[in-house]
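Side project, low priority. Logging it here so it doesn't get lost.
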Amino acid sequence: MRATALLRRGGSDSTQEQFTQPFIIMQQHHATVQQMADVFDVVIVGGGPTGLACALEAQKRGMSYLVVEQGGITDAIRRFPVNMTFFSTPELLELDGIPFTTTNVRPSRREALQYYRKVVESRRLNIRLHTRVERIQRNENRSEKDRAKDSEADSHAHPEQARFFVHTAAQVFAARRVIIATGYFDVTNRLGVVGEDLPHVSHYYDEPYRYAMSSVVLVGGRNSAVEAALELWRHGARVTMVHRGEGIGQSVKYWVKPDIENRLKNGEITAYFSSIVREIRVGELVIEHLHTHECRTIQADFVFPLIGYRPDEHLLRSAGVEVHERTLVPYYHPETFETNVQGLYIAGSVACGCETWTIFIENGRMHAKLIFDHICSNKNFVGFEHL
């Protein structure tokens, strides 16, 4: 596992917004004290594969937990392209040794959705779906006696003893610890150009059939853009790629790269490399060559800027987690995944910031055991170093 973490000594309260009268704040969010009767040992924000892996660890260790997911089970996978096939083999996507069976060498999006749903059902995981976490608040009003009980499991403790309050639109959940496992698929990188929010522009590609006999422009040159370009071309679209790199990205899947290279060589797909988008208009867009600065207008009935994703830094920052300004990598310990906020952990691809090629389901699911090993060790958050 690559230790991309940037650590800070502390767990200081100085970076966290100060809150007073937490139960008044709860009433403003239409939650009541009765809705917070229990204090969970762990609240897990995010119901993707890594969030489910954390739930399974909590369950095995006899801890009270709740998974809060803004969409359906593994909602990010649901929003993948309809015909997507995973790079990995099934065993690398499995959770807690629960077999992932498929007739194919590599599982499809549909098979993954079915598998993770069955994991939730068979293990009866405690999950709250279609519930968005708006912010995570530290309880600044706890007594020293309450702080000393953080390592104890007592789900009947009063909410005032909780370390965190996890706010949703309708409820507030009290927790001793919080794990943020939100991934990065919800926030896309943007071009920052005029016309990017026009109705024929989308940062998510879904399926090819709508776009047959249309001019479609893909912005980007990595796996998402390349696979979308090939599928669109095979289903009758006129496809153009615009990429700021000098060629197709080196990280493109090895069995896909020869395919796209042949399509480009044969002129079946047009590509403008070393080029960027300057403006998007209805039916067309303007691109500029990075070296010659020559501009040209190309036809575009539909535009897909598929240029990557980034974590929800606002949720992290609102919780007091320090985030690297350029890479958006949160500050955390590489062996425990605890952040600079004591008791608050990150898991899965949210830990990689904008470096989204470093953490996947395959290695992100492994974070769960490390986190719960630390939680169950009853050790304090000490010994930070800045790597």
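Brief comment: The domain at 13-186+309-376 is CATH 3.50.50.60 (FAD/NAD(P)-binding domain).
Revisit when time allows.
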